[in-house]
Amino acid sequence: MRGVQLTSDEEMLPDSQRGFAPVIRGIAKSNAEVTVEQNNYVIYRTFVQPGAFEINDLYPTSNSGDLTVTIKESDGSEQKFVQPFSSVALLQREGHLKYSLSAGEYRAGNYNSAEPKFGQLDAMYGLPYGFTVYGGAIFSDDYYSLAGGLGKNFGYIGAISIDVTQAKSKLANEENSEGQSYRFLYSKSFNSGTDFRLLGYKYSTSGYYTFQEATDVRSDADSSYSQYHKRSQIQGNVTQQLGAWGSVYFNVTQQDYWNDEGKQRSLNAGYNGRIGRVNYSVAYTWTKSPEWDESDRLLSFSMSIPLGRVWSNYHLTTDQHGRTNQQLGVSGTALEDHNLNYSVQEGYGSNGVGNSGSVNLDYQGGVGSASLGYNYNRDGQQVNYGLRGGVIAHSEGITLSQPLGESMAIISAPGRARRARDQQRWCGSGLDG
C-alpha cells in the first residue's frame, strides 16, 4: 500500500511475548537463490547451498497470506511452491491489545492491477481464562469485508480458533459477488516432543473474494489470484523430537479452486540426526500445481563433519528423472574475531547436469555486514553480493551499525577506544556530527 499506518509493534516486547513466524523447508539441487513472496511482494531473499535448507528467521508482513517460495538454481531453472500461512491458532496474552489501522492506495505488485483507495482495521485482544477475541474490516469503493473470530487455549487439548469473514465485491462488468469464508486453526505441543505447529482448514463460498483477488479480477491483472479462485485449503505441520536420535518433520498442504479442477499440493518430510559430532539429514519434497502436468520430486542427503574450526560437508540430491548432483566442500570462520565466514563447494552432476562449484564469503564488521559469492555450472557463471547495515542519528552524531531490528542502546564513553560489549564484536561505530 501507499498511505499511512498506525500499528502495535511487537519489537517493543520481549522475545517470549512475540508472535509466530513459519518455518520454510525445501531442497536445493545446487547453489540457489531462495525468494519468499507474500501478497506479490518479496519479503525474504537468501542464497543456500545444495541440499535441504530451512528458513527460520522469516517475518511475514501480515498475519495471513500464502507464501510463494521460489528456488532459483544456478543453471537458471526454478522450483516454485506455495506454503499457505496463517498465524498459529490466533491467541493474545490476557490484557494485551494488538491492532493495526491503515489507509491509502492499494498496490498489488502486478504491473496492470488497479490501485483502489481503501481503509483497513484489525484488532486482537486477550481476555481472561485463555480467550482471545479478534476481528477486522476492509472498506473500499468496490469492496468491503467484515471478519470476527474467537480463540481459546484449552490447555492439555491445545489452542483452537474459529473465525468467519463476510465479503461483498464488485467485479468486472459491475457484477456484484457476495460470500463467506470460514477458518479453523489448531495447535498443540506434547510432552513427548510432538509439536503440531499448525493444523488448519479454510473454506470459502463461490462468491467470496479477498480484497486482493477482487482487485485483480476486476482489473484483469496478470496474477495467480485472477487465474485461480480459491475454494478450500488444508494444512498441517508436525515435528517430533527424538531426543538423542534427532528429530523428524512432516508438512503437507492442499489448495483447491472454484474455477479449476486441479489442486495445489505440497509435501515435505525429513529427518535430522547426529552421530557423535557428525550431523546428517535426509529430506524429501513433492510439489504439484494446477498449471504443471508433472509433479516435482526431490530427495536429498546431507552430512557435515567438524575438523577444528573447519566443517567438511557433503550433499546429494536426486530428482524424479534420475538427475543426481553431488557436492563436497568446506566451510568455517577466519580472522581474529571469527567474523569472516567462508564456504567452498565443488560438485558433479549426472545425466547432463554437469560440474559446478561456488565460493562464498560473509563478513560481519563494525559498521555493517557484506557478502560476496561466486558460482559456476555448465550454463555459465554468477556473482552475487550484498551490503547490510543500520544508521542511527542522535544528539552525539551518527552511529553506523549492523542491521537494526530489536531493542538497542547507545553508550557514550568519551576518551575510550571502541571495544566489544557482551561479546558482540560488531556493536557499531560512531561518526562525530
From TrEMBL:
It holds the Pfam family Usher. Keywords: Cell outer membrane, Fimbrium biogenesis, Membrane, Signal, Transmembrane, Transport. It comes from the Bacteria. It is found in: Cell outer membrane. PROSITE patterns: FIMBRIAL_USHER. Its main location: membrane. The keyword Transmembrane applies. GO terms for cellular component: cell outer membrane. One of its GO terms (biological process) is pilus assembly. It is a multi-pass membrane protein. InterPro entries: Fimb_usher, Fimbrial_membr_usher_CS. GO terms for molecular function: fimbrial usher porin activity. This is Outer membrane fimbrial usher protein.
